[in-house]
Amino acid sequence: MAGFTPKISIRNLNVYYGQAHTLKNITVDIPDNAITAIIGPSGCGKSTLLKSVSRLLEISDDVRISGSVEVDGEDIYAARELTHIRKKMGLLSQRPTALPMSIRANVTFGMRLHKRIRKKRLAQRVEHYLKLASLWDEVKDRLDESASKLSIGQRQRLCLARGLAVQPEIILADEPTSALDPMSSQHIEQIFMNLKSEYAIIHVTHILRQARRLADYVIFMYYGEIIEHGPAEQVLDNPQHERTKEYVKGLIS
């Protein structure tokens, strides 16, 4: 991984849903301070790989997992206490789920859970994280209104602000623009570009053009396996594997 410092190291990861072998012997390092795009056809295991990084897979009873996922050198599947691991993760899903409360309360929700913060300091943080999410100018005069009144694009940025407010180190984004209009998608893409110097961003996307615009590092998956991974320009412009070549040419989808 020349030029990149690993944030996450995955070794021999296998995931089974019942009898289905969903992830097969996954071994890869994911860099810090960069955007890693996970690409590949629908159903190839992209979202499963993303969820494995935060141990969200274990919500399902029929899941079996072997191998290791190390975050900052700690194997998260060997850890008994997950709070400190989950605090490192900010999750952005396909469809934004704003909490049924005000815009302000959405941003402060996680902060209040983890620590007591003075009211003045809370107000400063609300402004800071809404600005990071490029939402402040649109909502600064209605922070006490219900978040449900926001557009879907605004709600996605609010969810990002809420996630950033607990000061994670990793942003897990599972096709975060798939339900958004082009302008809202541009907002999210620009935010990721602005944030990548401070976070490890893992971005699942089915849009190859988006991967070309954003990614520093690319992981190409096919039927539960990693076929090829490396710097974006290498994988997207000069792929070494025949299957990757077919995918970037649009011959498989």
Helix tally equals 10
What helical percentage do the residues reach?
25-40%
Question: What overall form do the CA principal axes indicate?
Answer: globular
CATH superfamily of the domain at 1-88 and 171-179 and 202-253: P-loop containing nucleotide triphosphate hydrolases
In brief, what are we looking at here?
The chain has 253 residues and is α/β, with parallel strands linked by helices.
Q: What distinguishing features does this structure have?
A:
253 residues; alpha/beta; Rossmann fold; 6-stranded mixed sheet; 4-stranded antiparallel sheet; 10 helices; 35% helix; globular
Explain the layout of strands and helices.
Blueprint: E1 6-17, E2 20-31, E3 34-39, H1 46-52, E4 63-71, E5 74-75, H2 83-86, E6 89-92, H3 103-114, H4 119-132, H5 136-139, H6 152-164, E7 170-174, H7 182-195, E8 200-204, H8 208-214, E9 217-222, E10 225-231, H9 232-237, H10 242-248
Parallel strand pairs: 3-8, 3-9, 6-7, 7-8
Antiparallel strand pairs: 1-2, 1-4, 4-5, 9-10
Helix pairs in contact: 3-4, 3-6, 4-6, 6-7
What can you tell me about this protein's structure?
With 253 residues, the protein is an alpha/beta fold. The chain has a domain of 149 residues: Rossmann fold (3-Layer(aba) Sandwich). It has 10 helices and 10 strands. Strands 6-7-8-3-9-10 form a 6-stranded mixed beta sheet, sandwiched between helices. It has a 4-stranded antiparallel beta sheet with strand order 2-1-4-5, covered by helices on one side. It is globular and about 55 Å long.
